[in-house]
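In response to the reviewer comment on reproducibility (Comment 2.3), we provide here a single inverse folding case reported in full, input and output, so that an independent group could reproduce the run without further information from us. The structure tokens appear first.
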């Protein structure tokens, strides 16, 4: 593993503690950003998002599954904004079929993290997606940046050091 153990622990903490990410999609040939709550699949297998079909980003993901997520530590958690811990995840968005076991597991994880979301699962326009990481750019503070591929991300999220 190329990421130092202390940075790996910081990355895990960031992704487990934060609940929202900026989601970047391609919309009519232009970059588009939105905010999405997320839950994590075990062992770095992906980010679970539950989004409305009425939202532009949902149609964008169906048209082009290449997406990016940005998770940032809270403002004020570092001496300057440039030092905020953050992770940019490049990945593939995949809609989960409601009848699959994978859907049931992802839904349980999402509802456990966001109990108030239970009601939106009864709305026909809400769909469950998994963002499967391809690579991660992690900034663990000033001059502490590194890039990793999906395999190393899985190892880090498993807690392997």
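Designed residues, in position order:
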């Amino acid at each position: 593993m190329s990421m130092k153990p202390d940075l790996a622990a910081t990355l895990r903490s960031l992704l487990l503690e934060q609940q929202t990410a900026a989601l970047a999609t391609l919309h009519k040939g232009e970059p588009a950003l939105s905010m999405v709550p997320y839950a994590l699949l075990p062992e770095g297998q992906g980010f679970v998002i539950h989004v409305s079909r009425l939202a532009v980003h949902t149609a964008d993901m169906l048209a082009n599954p290449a997406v990016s997520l940005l998770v940032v530590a809270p403002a004020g958690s570092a001496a300057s904004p440039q030092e905020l811990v953050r992770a940019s995840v490049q990945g593939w968005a995949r809609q989960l079929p409601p009848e699959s076991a994978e859907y049931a597991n992802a839904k349980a994880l999402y509802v456990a993290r966001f109990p108030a979301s239970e009601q939106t699962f009864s709305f026909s326009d809400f769909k469950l997606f998994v963002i499967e990481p391809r690579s991660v750019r992690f900034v663990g503070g000033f001059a502490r940046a590194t890039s990793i591929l999906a395999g190393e991300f899985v190892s880090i999220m498993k807690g392997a050091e």
